[in-house]
Amino acid sequence: MNNRWIVLLIILVALVGCGNQKQEDNSENQHEDNGVVEQSSVQFQNIDVTVENNIATMTGQAISSNGEFFYVVLIGEKEVSEETKVSIKDGIDSWSDFSIELELTEEMLEAEEDVPVFQLYGKRENGDRINPNYIPIDVHMY
Questions:
Q1: In order along the chain (142 residues), what is the average pLDDT of each group of 10 residues?
Q2: Which of 12, 21, 84, 110 has its Cα between 20 and 30 A from that of 74?
């Protein structure tokens, strides 16, 4: 049990550190194809995850250059949910509230070694994932 708290604390510290960094290098957000530069970005803030009755609820705010972002749930490196698109109104020019509800599967609830995490990200027009953010789901705390 103590190992889970240590892993969760390390993940949270890393997320806070990553969330507070300014983008110093736009190369991750730019893709050049035949001389045309495509710019995409997505950012998140005020993220909160609760679990009740095997339902994980994530709330927060997002801003995206195209008004949408995507998420999957990972256990380790394995995707255990299908990719889901979230449209955010007013999310292009200003922060927009969002809420995600996810029914936890047996696989997610019984994960012992790796904590299930939401992976939130944007996409370029060619489908490449950009700006991934990892938010742990503490299924054993509730």
A1: 66 63 43 51 94 95 92 95 91 88 93 91 92 91 59
A2: 21
HEC string of the chain? CHHHHHHHHHHHHHHHHHHCCCCCCHHHCEEEECCEEEECCEEEEEEEEEEECCEEEEEEEEEECCCEEEEEEEECCEECCCCEEEECCCCCCCCEEEEEEEECCHHHHCCCCCCEEEEEEEECCCCCEEEEEEEECCCCCC
Unique residue bearing structure tokens 């050049």: 32
**Beta-carbon-side half-sphere exposure of residue 112 (alpha carbons within 13 Å):** 0
Domain coordinates in residue numbering, the chain: 2-21+42-136
pTM over 0.85: no
